Amino acid sequence: MKKILLASGCSMTDSNYVSETNPEIDCSWPKWPELIAKKLDMECINLGRNGAGNEYIYSSLLEKILEKKDQIGLVMPAWSQCQRKDYQEGYSYILNNQYGLIAGWRYGHRKQERVDPNGDVFSWIRKSLRYYISLQTLCERYNIPYKQFQMISLYDGWLNGLGKPDFEIKANLDNPDFVKKYTYPGNVKKDRPKCQKIMMDYEPYIDVKNFIGWPTADSIGGFHIEQKTLRMTGQDRKSDYDIDCLLSEEDVHPNEKGHQKIAEFLYDRLG
Predict the structure, then answer these.
(1) 261, CA 20 to 30 Å: which among 177, 187, 200, 228?
(2) With contact defined as beta carbons under 8 Å apart, do 87 and 106 qualify?
(3) Which tens digits make up the pLDDT trace of 196-246?
(4) CATH numeric code, 4-154+190-267
(5) Nearest-CA neighbor of 254 among 244, 246, 262?
(6) pTM of the predicted protein model
(7) Helices (DSSP H) in the chain: which residue ranges?
(8) Which parts of the chain have pLDDT scores under 50?
(9) What pairs with residue 211 in β-bridges?
């Protein structure tokens, strides 16, 4: 019996991703977890969901690890943005859904669903870091190999002004007064160093050998995977995207080539 490669993440991982700006594009190509699983001769279980945050990513992996711990050969969490809000509901629905206990999760696209209404960027970062450490501890408890990484920026996206959802941008293409980003409610110049310090304060508890790109931000010596695969110079600038690896100019999610590039980058760092 083949071992399982267990992955979870957001839209950059979702095996059933559908573009909101370009729904006519068929996105049924293999995503990066399936490509890596094939290289490793493993069965793939991909729990990634469009819009998901780190609570969902952690919880979905936790439930599946408890269910299949003796069959798992590798766990790969593709961590998302810290401000995203996830919640779970519907007990009977959860039990009856094909995905088992991970079903019933909600992760929205409107601002009130995309952003946790409680806390601030500092508390959201700490909460995400607790998920990272908890997943690390869980995998070590059951002697399961794992590789963590930040798929997209943990906090810079929020500090720089969170982009509005694709469907909202598309609906306002002819609206000259439409603003494509939300305004960060704090002082970026003062708050970014505080975010960086939180990351470094937690470093003693992170197994950096098993965290690709730690500490996740180039300003403190790390990186996230989108930087290294979908951008031409590794900088978080809209104009820096490699269009050949994107779904379209409007949708900056990876296309088939983009997923292949992500898979190759990660595979080369599994050792």
Answers:
(1) 200
(2) yes
(3) 999 999 999 999 999 999 999 999 999 999 999 999 876 666 568 999 999
(4) 3.40.50.1110
(5) 246
(6) 0.91
(7) 32-40, 54-68, 91-96, 111-114, 121-141, 156-159, 166-171, 188-202, 225-229, 256-267
(8) 92-101, 109, 111-112
(9) 148
